[in-house]
Design goal:
This protein is 27% helix and 32% strand. It is α+β, with helices and mostly antiparallel strands. The protein starts with 5 loop residues before the first helix and ends with a helix. The chain binds zinc ion.
Length: 62
């Protein structure tokens, strides 16, 4: 198998994982409409609508 940039790709992944508690996801909060940091991400399964996402401290007021 050809290895194209395998080493640098692995290094990039480990960097993301190390910083995962402060990682900005592409999920948007249903309550405030802003993107959610991974450590604030709260996935909620809604019947008939699929997954919705909230900041952990915004879901209580939703
Ligand atoms: Zn929010």
């Amino acid at each position: 198998m050809a290895k194209k940039g395998g080493l640098s790709k692995t290094a990039r992944v480990s960097l993301v994982q190390r910083d995962s508690t402060n990682f900005l996801t592409d999920r948007v909060c249903m309550q405030c409409g802003e993107r959610i940091m991974l450590k604030e991400l709260l996935p909620v399964k809604v019947i008939g609508q699929g997954m919705q996402y909230y900041h952990k401290n915004h879901f209580a007021v939703a």
